């Protein structure tokens, strides 16, 4: 299987702490890097964890709160000073476009690469990015400002060639792609070898869901059913559920209910309130509902399996 992993750059919430940076992640999938949210200090985190910024070509911003986007203009500026020439594509709520253009005009005069803005409709579940390897689909969420999560799903790969059969039958290399695409093989004696004997099944398709700031949505699981890895904000513990309701956030227990109902493979908690000096209370509440839960932390790299 090719790498599909999530690099946690920040998992704190709006109030700065010395324990956590605010929201930012890099998703590595089939040799490509894409960024999800870009809080203040993200470019420093890229340096700290040795992530090559030149490979980041898409940035997805979930919503327009500072702890999710204040770092973008700084990163854009630094990329320019480091000699970037490849376009950077930014996917964010439409209201961000005039602000981003104004920031670039003021702080990045003479930028030698293009920043391409793509407005995101946070009310609809739709594919906003697609290439030959994967898709990115929006997940409508409910926060105090328009907000969307992102579902990243691999595209199916071709079956694997059985090297022993290829060698035994002396099948030329030029025919391997045809066989991967379903062709049988006819020997010199006229015997047809069915495709099923020449290949093994392809790798299973994997998916990752990033659910940014949102109040608990009982129906959210239907949009991410069967997801391999789910990151869901867990700002509060249950004793602060009134705060969660007031500010349109979720508790760790509510995040676990979403993971349970979605039949997710693994749950990552994050976006911790600054009131917690130790997030074990959040983990304990979540694991009582969904045992395969982990706390995200800066520098953590999580494989999507």
In short:
The protein has 305 residues and is of the alpha/beta class. The chain has nine helices and 18 strands.
- What are the low-pLDDT stretches, counting only 5+ consecutive residues below 50? none
Number of contiguous helices: 9
* Count of beta strands: 18
Largest sheet: 7 strands, mixed
Q: Report the order of strands and helices.
A: EEEHEHHEHEEEEEHHEEEEEHHEHEE
Helix proportion of residues, in percent? 10-25%
In which order are the strands of the major sheet placed? 6-5-4-3-2-1-18
Question: Would you give an account of this structure?
Answer:
There is one protein chain. Strands 6-5-4-3-2-1-18 form a seven-stranded mixed sheet. A seven-stranded mixed sheet has the order 7-8-9-14-15-16-17, covered by helices on one side. With 305 residues, the chain is an alpha/beta fold. The chain is built from nine helices and 18 strands. A hairpin with a 2-residue loop joins strand 2 and strand 3 (32-38). Helices cover 23% and strands 28% of the residues. The protein is globular. Helix 8 runs parallel beside helix 9 (280-287). The termini are close together.
